[in-house]
Amino acid sequence: METVVRLVNPRGDTERQWVHQALEKLAQESARSADTHLLKLNFPGFHGIDFYFKDEASHPTGSLKHRLARSLFLYALCNGRLGDGQTVVDASSGSTAISEAWFARMLGLPFIAVMPTATAPGKLRDVQALGGECDLVDDPCQVHARAAAHAANGACHLDQFGLAERATDWRGNNNIAASIIDQMAREPFPEPAWIVCGVGTGGTSATIGRYLRYRRLSTRLCVAEPNGSGFVHGWRTCNPDAIASMPTLIEGIGRPRVEPGFVFDVVDRVVEVPDSASIAAAWLLEELLGRRYGGSSGTNFAACLQLAALMRMRGERGSIVSLLCDRGERYAQTLFDTSWLAAHGIDTTAWTTALRATLHDGQWQTAGQRPI
Question: Which pLDDT score is estimated for 372?
Fold first, then answer.
């Protein structure tokens, strides 16, 4: 009988040593990054309802995707998929790519971001400034295939859309949900009535929804999405194959299809927000907080106001927590450029008026319509 002897990889010890060093660098970075601020706002129309905004834009790479990027690198390293000198690739609309480029540079690895051609120019510059390469694709639906092609040529595909919900430790390890609940501990309403977030990969909503159940909290999870997104249709019809009915100008959310990381059953409510309302809300956030945040933060803010109006109508008190997802400076040539908005048929005047009225009266108002 022939004996089969499996030889030990002669590079195994060297590779393992590099992986250990890479993991140590990620652990050191995590300790240095600490946590992000939880900002509190109150509005005259919502007595007894406190609003909190977790400033994920204060991460070193400027967005909530900093946490995800770290988790994706940890996942690739600990699964033996990433080695010394290997090119790293991922498909992204921008913020994740910036964070991944930052971590790749820290580990001394080449990085390729596969991005839609329509991505905000500021995001492209940020990736390139960190040493990353931008591979632009005209059809946003083809970014996954292009990233897979790079992986077929030897690159490590971090695959945020396929792995986000499993790469993040939803039980703790300073995930965003654990951080929110810990920071709320001394507030008047420490257990939020709602936590509001958008959906890109599905990782953030999955982490928050799972953690709320793990901690046995009554807090509900609301997903704020652009009108007609793939997730909106998928969640309402319980159809994982649903596709978007209309495109969106809000980068990072409003995916054209239901991504594999979406966990339907942990979402309690979906609120659709028109692009013009999201952008008006983003401009309003700058007035309220003194700095700019991106369009998805505006989407979240608009959804928070809808939920608060329902709470007020029912005589409920409590707190609502949402996310400030990324730095608004990245959208200086798009969402915060009046010429760009006009070219895309966006007029925020009516929505700005409606949102201001909502803050004052506590009744949800939409552009050109009576209060709800």
Answer: 46
Are 90 and 192 contained in the same domain? Answer: no
Average pLDDT of span 263-290: 96
C-alpha to C-alpha distances, 158 to 47, 169, 259, 313, 355, nearest whole angstrom: 45, 16, 15, 45, 39
Strands in 156-157's sheet, in edge-to-edge order, are 133-137, 111-116, 88-91, 156-157
pLDDT tens for each residue of 36-70: 999 999 999 999 999 999 999 999 999 999 999 99
Last residue of a domain, one of 165, 187, 218: 165
In a domain, 353, yes or no: yes
Say what the pLDDT of residue 368 is: 63
The amino acid occupying position 11 is R
CATH of residue 328's domain is 3.40.50.1100
Write the pLDDT tens digit of every residue in 140-193.
889 989 999 999 999 999 999 999 888 888 886 668 999 999 999 999 999 999
Any domain includes 3: no
Could you tell me if 118 and 252 are in contact, meaning their C-beta atoms sit under 8 angstroms apart? no
Same domain, 229 and 257: yes
Question: What is the domain count for the chain?
Answer: 2
Determine the Cα–Cα distance for residues 60 and 261; give it in Å rounded to an integer.
25
Separation of alpha carbons 361 and 58, rounded Å: 31
Q: Tell me, what amino acid is at 250?
A: I
Structure tokens at 18: 């590099």
How is residue 243 written in tokens?
């596709």
Instruction: State the pLDDT at residue 176.
Output: 93
User: Domain range holding 299?
Assistant: 27-59+171-361
Q: What is the rounded distance in angstroms from the CA atom of residue 14 to the CA atom of residue 20?
A: 10
10 within some domain: no
Of 108, 143, 165, the one marking the end of a domain is 165
